[in-house]
Specification:
heterodimer, A: 147 residues, alpha+beta, Sufe protein. Chain: A, globular, B: alpha/beta, Aspartate Aminotransferase, domain 2, seven-stranded mixed sheet, four-stranded antiparallel sheet
Chain lengths: 147, 416
């Protein structure tokens, strides 16, 4: 049925797996990157904490409540950024935002962002793009503040 | 069901014929805005095609026709809400502006530092934020009657808060977020007995339940045309005449003056003192056929019909083990059903419902303090109106079932 296919296209299995996973949920303490993001449309709040060490994102966690899309996107982001050099982490954020906001090419995604291709379907729902980018915008604020 | 002929009314609403994502539209977002019958749409077209001219200015024929149509709507509205005089009804852009008008033109003039404004935790942001802004500017205290966990107000707590002598008591007649019907007349009486000026946010009341402003005894009542089949961009503030007379204008400019010299100006009479600039006269005029439509169907019949549909939706939700907010007692409920799917965020519920053609509102419904008190970040909300029928309840049930199956959530699902 059409509705089912659309639902499956938006909420791909990979996305639901990340949503249900709690691997990188929580808070890093002590943290030297802290950022708080709010989606004013729905009131969802997300707290990103990370330990930056030796120019790298040593550990990154997300906490808060949100929809499948925002939570799964934050989980995938935590996985992709952990271990990355800070400039590399920032370039991954830029690459993801390009995918979501400028209709970037999925094939051109850096390999660290491979699971993020599952968010491709969200682009057909402009109101939900903000859910997907919440974590990424929040972590960028954190990088700016941690300078 | 009684003889309420929803099918006949549905035929008057062109938008209800469209498909959404390949499915017939089930429009259940009426608390946000209602759809418009062709009587209103055609009136608006006819207005622009035959009468359009600026009001209260020219001596030419079109200006006179335009003015008469815009003022006829005010007269009709006065009868509809039982206002003592049409000129005590001020047209604004929306109910938010109506509430801001009270804050700006009444409270700013008559309240002083140390005075208290009393509201409730059940309010829409539009009945919180203007008072917060004023409180910060003028050193006025702001207090809120707490909301109970079942989404009602405890009258003993209202009395206790009123006993502290607030100068203004401003509250919602019917909760937009969870559908609680407040005991409006009782609350007005308590407020007046305590010596407060009483302001009622009737946004969710006016489209669904009769009101008689003459006997209500309130001082200010705000509501909005677009939630009652009328055009967007037309809000209403009713005020007691003595208060309106004593207040200063809201905005300055054309139409609101009596005489202007470079040194000073004097104000026009009611209601124009509060309607600066070219008003939204076409939409104002087109409010009249919306009021006619509601009068023909009858507010009591509408209220009973939507309550019946909403209670059916509530029964479906409760049978599936969903969390339904608001009072258990059907007598305290309206055509609004606010709920949560355990384990799933309201936005995902909203998207899954949309894919079934079912339009529900999700999120905090501009009531973040209320959501906080009820310990949820947001809800999904279905709100019914006169053109909804059993087919919408069926679509709602189907969308819910599909959502639970797809996301494997809810009490009946296994581990998710």
């Amino acid at each position: 049925m059409e509705g089912d296919a659309e639902l499956q296209d938006l909420y791909r299995e990979v996305l639901l797996d990340y949503f249900r996973s709690s691997t990188r949920k929580g808070k890093v303490d002590p943290a030297n990157l802290r950022a708080h993001g709010i989606n004013p449309v729905c009131g969802d709040e997300l707290e990103i904490t990370a330990e930056l060490r030796d120019g790298k994102v040593a550990k990154l966690r997300y906490a808060g409540h949100g929809c499948v899309i925002s939570q799964a996107s934050a989980a995938m982001m935590a996985e992709a950024l952990e271990g990355a050099e800070i400039p590399k982490a920032k370039s991954l954020v830029a690459a993801f935002k390009k995918l979501m906001l400028e209709n970037g090419d999925v094939a051109g995604l850096p390999e660290e962002l491979e699971p993020l291709a599952s968010l491709e379907g969200v682009r057909k729902f402009p109101l939900r793009v903000k859910c997907a980018t919440l974590g990424w915008n929040t972590v960028m604020q954190g990088f700016e503040a941690a300078k | 069901m009684s003889r309420f002929d929803a099918a006949k009314y549905r035929a008057d609403f062109p938008i209800l014929k469209r498909l959404v994502r390949g499915k017939p539209l089930a429009y259940l977002d009426n608390a946000a805005t209602t759809q418009k019958p062709r009587q209103v749409i055609e009136f608006l077209t006819r207005f622009y095609e035959t009468h359009n001219a600026n009001v209260h200015r020219g001596v030419h024929t079109l200006s006179e026709e335009s003015t008469n149509l815009a003022e006829a709507a005010r007269g009709k509205l006065a009868l509809f809400v039982g206002a003592p005089k049409p000129e005590t009804l001020i047209f604004t852009r929306n109910a938010t502006e109506s509430l801001n008008l009270i804050a700006h033109s009444w409270a700013r003039k008559f309240l002083k530092a140390g005075d208290t404004i009393l509201s409730t935790e059940m309010e829409h942001h539009s009945n919180i934020v203007p008072w917060q802004m004023l409180a910060a500017e003028r050193g006025i205290k702001l207090e809120f009657v707490p909301v109970e966990l079942d989404g009602t107000l405890d009258l003993a707590k209202v009395k206790a808060a009123l006993a502290k002598g607030p100068k203004l008591f401003t509250f919602t007649a019917l909760s937009n977020a969870i559908g609680t019907v407040n005991p409006v007349l009782e609350l007005i009486k308590l407020g007046k007995a305590a010596g407060a000026v009483v302001s009622v946010d009737a946004c969710q009341w006016a489209p669904h339940k009769p009101m008689d402003l003459k006997s209500w005894g309130a001082d200010f009542v705000s509501f909005s045309a677009h939630k009652m089949l009328g055009p967007t961009g037309v809000g209403v503030l009713w005020g007691r005449e003595e208060l309106l007379d004593a207040m200063d204008p809201f905005l300055g400019g054309g139409d609101m003056i009596s005489r202007v010299t470079l040194e000073k100006s004097t104000w026009n009479e009611l209601p124009y003192k509060f309607e600066a600039g070219t008003p939204n006269f076409a939409d104002q005029a087109a409010f009249a056929p919306a009021l006619d439509y509601l009068s023909d169907v009858g507010l009591d019949a509408i209220s009973a019909h939507e309550h019946e549909l909403a209670e059916k939706a509530r029964a479906i939700l409760e049978a599936e083990g969903m969390t339904v907010l608001g009072p258990k007692d059907p007598a305290k409920r309206s055509g609004v059903v606010s709920f949560n799917v355990p384990g799933l965020h309201p936005h995902d519920v909203g998207t899954a419902f949309d894919l079934e053609g079912v339009a529900v509102r999700v999120g905090h419904h501009c009531c973040q303090p209320l959501m906080h008190q009820l310990q949820c970040g947001g809800t999904a909300r279905a709100s019914f109106y006169l053109y909804n029928d059993q087919s919408d309840v069926d679509s709602f049930a189907r969308a819910l079932k599909r959502t639970l199956e797809f996301f494997r959530v809810g009490p009946k699902a296994g581990v998710s």
